[in-house]
Amino acid sequence: MGTRKGKFILLASFLYVVKNCAGQMTTIVGHRGCGTSEAGGTSPYPENSLYSFKKAVDENIDGVELDVWLTKDKQVVVIHGTDDGLLGHTLLYDEDSQQKCIEDLTAEEIQSYHFKEPWILNKGRRFYQQGSTASGVSTVEMENVATNHTEREGIISHNDNNVCSCSSGHHHQGGHSHGLRVKTLVKNEEEQVKFATLSRSEKLRKKMEYADYGQPYINMEENEELEKLFNEGSLQGSFSEEGEQSSQGEEQPSQGGEEPTYEPRQSRRERRNARMSEQLLEGEFINSIKCSFCKELYTGYVMKKNYTLKKKKKLFKFLSKFYHVPLLKDLLNLYKDKLTYDIELKGTKEDLGVHILDVLENYKQYKFKFSSFNWVLQDGQMEKGSEQEKSAEVSPAASSPDASSPVASSPAASPPAASPPAASPPAASPPAASPPAASPPAASPPAASPPAASPPAASPPDNVQQADLLKPLRNNKLNIPVALLFSDDEVMPNFVSILSTMKYYNAEWAHFSYRSFMRPVVMNGNKRNKIVTSANHFIEMLHNNKKKIMIYWGTEDKDEYEDLLLYIKMGVDSICPNNIDVARQARLHASSE
């Protein structure tokens, strides 16, 4: 009896340790799916595409980060866009659309543009000849274009001719057929230039080169895999194309006592279009396809299948979704709870959060998190702090023992619980609403001078006038966690300001660039002073206040194994890398020590 009891206690202790370790393990959340595909990016799949998210599922990572905007017709689309709200360079569109903002276009207009071939497969070949891409390729031979499709290393040769025609199993470009083939890759030992180290003018030139690049993305090997899944029934019904799914948007009971699945509601327009599509003969259906590249996908691939016309139409509509900007609901209908979804809100429409909540109302069993750069610094103790400054200055002796030396003549800061709030007004220290060049801090008040590191740019409007995308999501009805995104091109707000703001938004998470803690952290202090503290102390402060931390890598950042390992060992709660393969290796290494 005693032996049995002892074994039970041992087993219970083991399960407790396993559960505790699992809870503490740093999660991996793929940036825009499995990395960025713009100039400087490392993903061989178009970012924020259904292909990119499929790769995240295939790699069995914890979740994905995705960017969403609200369209003119109030649809939530998954796309990153540019600093000033334009479509960006990941899509093929005409000149008339170059200067159109995402928020001024309808979802149908945005979804009419085909994804462009990712930068690393063409203009970016020479930058990543060594190391891993997000696809899991250990080395990349850049005399050809290397990519990985379903656990294989495939090489595709191509040219820059803006011609694309498809046939079964091959990718035709410029009149030449280039089938996927497995090839042993030879490691190039020469030191490679990193995109992140280029000068600003060189980066701009590379971005302009990619902006002018006109090769469509066509992935024949993945098409074949998707077709197999489609035929097996595992992906059929993921999109409400043929009017066969519930038009009432109700939960449908599932087999075996599992969670009920939501059958998406179709709009009147979708049902009408589906009925019209069903009635078209094959030639008429082909002529109705608006995207010329997808039209060739049908004639060169789908049309040759020995299926009924109805099934061909369904297969084509399913495949074509992977080559165009998805709606948020499309992504959720397809991948369901296989991933967690970190949704970054972008743009200027403050009702975006309301519309997202309406969509997510139908997916309550999935795991979500909201984040944005567009929030307003809140400091409830501002007035009290100003009164305190009149009577006393902060003593250098009160600074944290873990903190580094203060900048120049700046007095040191007190520990988090006792630190007086910054004297700067709220408009001075919020994170950027968009990437760096668009959002330097306001420079009017003397206490809020912009950091020297900020690039020269026109001053943005006062922060109060900026869109506060997180405000509608405070204490949201679905109890979805909220995160504040911090930019690395500004001086960090002080501890009290950060905690006050997180309290205002009921934010559980704070997201920081990987650059933020590669050196001592500079924070805004009292008056014109700056406070410097160590990265470990900063992270410890947030954890002691029961806040979670994610570290993210940006568009142009190449994830280094050492950096990923460093942050995992520092105990951050989540990382958002471009290179999910290297991130998994780093996490495995850290867990084995």
Q: Estimate the helix proportion, in percent.
A: 25-40%
Shape summary? globular
Secondary structure: number of strands: 21
Largest sheet: 8 strands, parallel, barrel
- Main sheet: strand order: 1-2-14-15-16-17-20-21
Beta-strand residue fraction:
5-15%
Radius of gyration, in angstroms, nearest whole number = 26 Å
Q: How large is the count of helical segments?
A: 16
Stretches with pLDDT under 50, minimum 5 residues: 13-23, 130-191, 241-263, 381-464
Write the layout of secondary structure elements.
Layout: H1 2-24, E1 27-31, H2 50-58, E2 63-70, E3 76-78, E4 91-92, H3 107-110, E5 114-115, E6 145-148, E7 153-156, E8 164-167, E9 170-173, E10 176-179, E11 181-182, H4 200-212, H5 220-232, E12 251-252, E13 261-262, H6 268-279, H7 282-288, H8 292-300, H9 309-320, H10 328-335, E14 340-345, H11 352-360, E15 368-372, H12 382-391, E16 482-485, H13 495-504, E17 509-513, E18 521-524, E19 530-533, H14 535-544, E20 548-552, H15 561-570, E21 574-576, H16 580-592
Parallel strand pairs: 1-2, 1-21, 2-14, 14-15, 15-16, 16-17, 17-20, 20-21
Antiparallel strand pairs: 2-3, 4-5, 6-7, 7-11, 8-9, 9-10, 12-13, 18-19
Helix pairs in contact: 15-16
